Amino acid sequence: MYLKMRRHFQKNTSLSLTPRLIRVWASAESCTTVSTIFPIPVRLVLRFLLAIVLTANAFAKSTPAPEKGYAQEKAPAVKVTTKREGMTTHFLVENDELCEITMSFDLDLQNLKSQTRFPYTATFPAGKTTEAFVLTPTATDSNWEYSYTNYYKLGSSRAQHDENAVYRLPYASGSRYKVSQGYHGSYSHKGSNEYAIDWQMPEGTPVFAAREGLVVKVKDDSNTGGSSMKYDPFNNYVLIRHPDGTLGHYCHLKKGGVTVKPGQIIKGGQLIAHSGNTGFSSGPHLHFSVFKTRDGRERISLPVKFQTAEGKAAVLVEGRRYTAPDAGMQTASAAAPKSNASGAAF
Q1: pLDDT at 341 over 70
Q2: CA 69, 74, 80, 83: dihedral to nearest 10 degrees?
Q3: Fewest CB atoms less than 10 Å from the CB: which of 16, 193, 286, 346?
Q4: What gap in Å lies between CA 13 and CA 134, rounded to an integer?
């Protein structure tokens, strides 16, 4: 996810120039923001043209409402804005996601300085607007200019995984499934998916939460999949924030198979979805990983242990089959409220 912006401030001119910000939202995944300055006559022309467009739209035939579903396009949940106070420019990050985001900034500065060192990466809390950094002119009697690009990912770079947490196998008690690809799997478990687990299972198999947490994002509108990365955008998933700030990712789910909603607090062992074969998938299976962020471009998957019917916490091995124990044997982290990475409880 990225956002680009360029802004220029002109001094000592005979024209009265006022910066005008033009925003273009490319998609729910990315946005581009361009800012420039127009002289007064040009601004008047643009306002006249805008009035014509708005009038035409008022008489245009209304378009049908989008189909209801968890992947419906919405306004961007993360925005970067600026606020001027005298010669100082404050950069603010508005995060309306249900979990933290990690954002990285690259800046190009001319006659500007900051106490922040760039490139700059930080984690920003959910549901808040937070100041990221401040710019001030190096020489106040000269022109200044900045441009920047920023990238962000869901999750916290400050999350510390609870090493005492033991995860439930994400399928029904007594069920037994084969690990078709384990940690460091040669097919696709590399890089950010290094510590992911795949279980081979028929489409429509009930999927249960491996650990308690807050549902932060879901998608289940796709019925498309294939053994190529070009199918990755069609992946159906559930993303759950754990009490320690890490995120659990359940992927390749069946179309219409998600049973939870964003903002819902769920317990370990609760039904959350049904498995499928969507996205980058060579056959019906469930993909699961736990991760935190490295920066605004990359995430880090984390190794975890699972409770098995044998009664011990285990690192799952590719090619082996594992039976989910009865509910009474489960020792996954308790569903009682715990403090999360930012001090809140749920």
Answers
A1: no
A2: -140
A3: 16
A4: 26
Are 80 and 91 in contact, with CB atoms under 8 Å apart? Answer: yes
Residues 6 or more apart whose CB falls under 8 angstroms from that of 257 comprise 204, 220, 236, 273, 274, 275, 276
Name the nearest CA neighbour of 279 among 250, 252, 239.
252
Q: What is the pTM of this model?
A: 0.77
Round the CA-based radius of gyration of the chain to a whole number and report it.
24
Query: Given this model, what pLDDT does residue 328 score?
Result: 64
Q: Which domains does the chain have, with CATH numbers?
A: 2-154 (no CATH), 166-326 (2.70.70.10)
Containing H/E element for 40? Answer: helix 40-59
Name which of 161, 153, 96, 107 is nearest 295 in CA terms: 153
H-type alpha helices, the chain = 40-59
SS3 50: helix
The label of the residue with tokens 């106040």 reads 140
The string of pLDDT tens digits covering residues 28-83 is: 333 333 332 333 344 544 555 555 444 444 333 333 333 333 444 466 899 999 99
Which has the closest alpha carbon to 271: 284, 258, 253, 289? 258
DSSP one-letter code for 284: S
